[in-house]
Amino acid sequence: MSLEVSIKKSFPSFTLDVSIEAGSETLGFLGASGCGKSLTMRCIAGIEKPDEGRIVVNGQVFFDSEERINLTPQQRKTALLFQNYMLFPNLTVAQNVAAGIGRDVPRADADAIVQSELKRFGLEGFDARYPAQLSGGQQQRVALARMLAARPGILMLDEPFSALDAHLKGVLEQNLVSLFDAFDGTILYVSHDIDEALRFCDRIAVVESGHILEIDTGDDLVNRPQSSAALKLSGCKNATPAERVGDHCVWLPKWGVRVATDEEVPADVKYLGVRARYVERAEGPGENNYRMRVDRASDSRFERTLLLGFVDRDESAVPTVAHTEDEMKYLHQHMFWRVGKVDVDPARLLDAGDEVWVHIPKDRIYLVTK
Predict the structure, then answer these.
(1) Are the CB atoms for 2 and 59 separated by under 8 Å?
(2) pLDDT (tens digit, 9 = 90+) per residue, 201-232?
(3) Is the pTM higher than 0.90?
(4) What is d(CA 83, CA 243) in angstroms, rounded to the nearest whole number?
């Protein structure tokens, strides 16, 4: 089972230019909204037509601009799950599941396939109901059952949990495990949630402005990112432009400070990254120790996120911008720090207005060149 894609499609302000290969695996597409993730899937499914290139699934040519091949969506036998599930409101659950089964399949066999998939997803007894009579979670399970019933050559899921609350999302993620276990082939999974991609995907493609910047395992993406996009998409809150000033030192113009690094600094370094949870408290001055002012504090269930301003930043090189002047510039001049608040005396937690020394560990720094 395999997928080969090399396509281009141009728009007035955007060009999709994607080349990927995948085997029997789940390949994630991680990127911001509008970067080309869903468009790539729509081209594979035949909903969109590329300007040029080639798409081959399991040895069958779906699209080839030079050979003038462009199979219809029906001929391609793909399964694409959208965010809203796209169930037919006038069909029952059983009819929805059967909708993708080929007409060449005998009726008895088709009925057996439908019942098998309804059982797989815990939908026995729902055969005669209509989508409007189902919960959101039940609708999703019907959509997943329909995907497998069609016996597609490739599965594609486009942010299937984006409209669900956290509790329901956690439950329905287990349905995907059943789907993936039952399918032997290439699965493409679009997301903008790094944790979701890590749970489901064997490899993850970082997509930005219509291009794939890198394809890595989840571990490599988190621990060895190769681009500023990967830094940000992998959840690194502190990703800031960097300039090389020595073999093991960079100047950070937006922060107005220098930082020492364990890793040798590439000549063409573009960004430095450090995760907010890796920042440490320090006792005073030292290498990579900085006197900070807490300008904002916000709480989640288990952590407090602090927005730290560099008290001793080089004002002559980079004057401080007030949040009333330009909110984004103001934020970019700060460092994020996440501290646990479970089993911590609330009186010991830092708050807005406090000053503190912090340390950036040299071995926790990412340096990227694109």
Answers:
(1) yes
(2) 999 999 999 999 999 999 999 889 999 999 98
(3) no
(4) 41
